[in-house]
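Hi everyone, sorry if this is the wrong subforum. Our group has a chain we'd like a structural model of before ordering constructs, and none of us has done structure prediction before. Sequence below.
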Amino acid sequence: PVCNQIVAILLTFFSSQVMEALPTKKIVELAKVRGVPSGAVGFVALSKKPEMMVWGQNTAGEKVDEHTLFSVQSISKLFTTIGVLQAVQDGVVNLDTSVSTYLPELVISNCNKKSYPTLRMLLSHAGGLPFDATVGNNFSADGSFEEHMKSILSGVVLQFSPGTQKSYSNVGIDLAGYIVARLSKKSFPDYMNSKV
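Answer:
Right subforum, don't worry. Here is the predicted structure as tokens:
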């Protein structure tokens, strides 16, 4: 997938030695060869001045520049995970506690509450939960965050037994962030602003 290719390319540039060995213009060439239609990439290394490369056009056909906005998509999962791990460090949550402890109202229709996934399983996409919610998902921005969470809490169906497989799940990450926000008695954005 294109996203994996972009991530692989970006991770390469964390090393200043690699940055110096591979000219920054090469990123655009690699992206085009791999079929990435447009993008903006920042390069930061302690030994060099930060650089930015942009290429392509957005979906409206406008040329991408340093002011073009891109959706953060799953990059936000990294920040949610950091927020949850802050809560673990602060003793607010335990990674190996069932989510039913934190969200007793959560309904997983084909699972006994004693077998609900743990926070660790949610963060590692091993919770067995579906890819997306029925309200407020990647394909529809309908509904508020509260309606989105209500659609999850009112009933989801496991795709597999928790901890037995891995499958990408926006629902799992959403639940993990929701748990931390609820226990902190703050909105998720307020919690994140105070902790991350």
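For your construct planning: The two ends are 29 Å apart (CA to CA). Residues 115 and 158 are 11 Å apart (CA to CA).
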